[in-house]
Design brief:
Layout (H helix, E strand, L loop, with lengths): L1 E7 L17 H18 L3 E8 L3 E3 L22 H9 L6 E8 L4 H13 L3 E6 L18 H13 L3 H5 L3 H6 L5 H10 L5 E7 L6 E6 L1
Parallel strand pairs: 1-5, 2-4, 2-5
Antiparallel strand pairs: 1-7, 3-4, 6-7
Helix pairs in contact: 3-7
Length: 219
């Protein structure tokens, strides 16, 4: 059973040291860390499951090596965590439950995501930490440049997460998400299948680089 879920951004600059001395996402990192810790401690689940996109759907060792060097030197140690899971792992509080790391293939279809979510819902009590962004096409200088329909898409996504609208999340179109450079669509669709019936809360939203970053709690 999923007792609660938190959505945090997938921005690599949330990892310590990646953003350089300016550390532009320091405040967002602090808010995300607090949100995960407060939710995990309040719900007292046996497990804290970090869920994010990766090259395949699989579990990872909690002590898997960091892959943060992919953003600096371009070299990645063998067996390194996907960046989403590393970001989620960095927010995991001590005493927040047994840590589990689960990647879902970036190209996973809706049914695969639904099945994975159902498996999580049927498992032991857990709090989910879902690592995902909205579209990265909100401005001319965004990573994917400006797409005219990115802003309404981002508004609809924020509204769906705030309302814990699992039907809307489950119906996200993979092709549209890819075109808008939305990172984390499969993870959000797993969340939709894993945690129906929870109440949503939009804790924060910002788009400093033309990328929609969201902080959300379902409980």
């Amino acid at each position: 059973m999923i007792r609660a879920a938190v959505v945090v951004p997938a921005a690599p600059a949330l990892l310590p040291g990646i953003g350089g001395t300016a550390d532009p996402l320091a405040d967002l990192r602090a808010r995300a860390t607090t949100l995960v810790a407060d939710t995990a401690m309040t719900k007292g689940a046996d497990r804290l499951v970090v869920l994010g996109s990766g090259p395949s759907t699989r579990t990872w060792p909690v002590d898997a090596p960091s892959g943060a060097t992919r953003f600096t030197t371009g070299r990645v140690p063998e067996g390194a965590l996907p960046s989403d899971l590393e970001i989620g792992r960095s927010f995991a509080p001590s005493g927040g439950g047994e840590l589990h790391l689960l990647s879902v293939a970036a190209d996973a279809g809706r049914q695969e995501c639904a099945d994975l979510g159902a498996d999580l819902a049927a498992g032991p009590d857990a709090v989910l930490v879902v690592v995902a962004d909205g579209p990265a096409t909100l401005t001319d200088k965004a990573p994917g440049h400006l797409q005219p329909d990115a802003a309404p898409f981002a508004r609809a996504l924020a509204e769906a997460l705030a309302a814990a609208d699992v039907a809307t999340l489950a119906a996200l179109d993979p092709a549209t998400c890819d075109r808008l450079w939305m990172h984390g669509r499969p993870a959000l669709q797993v969340l939709a299948a894993a945690a129906p019936g929870l109440a949503g809360e939009l804790v924060g939203e910002e788009s400093p680089f033309g990328v929609q970053y969201l902080l959300v709690r379902w409980s």
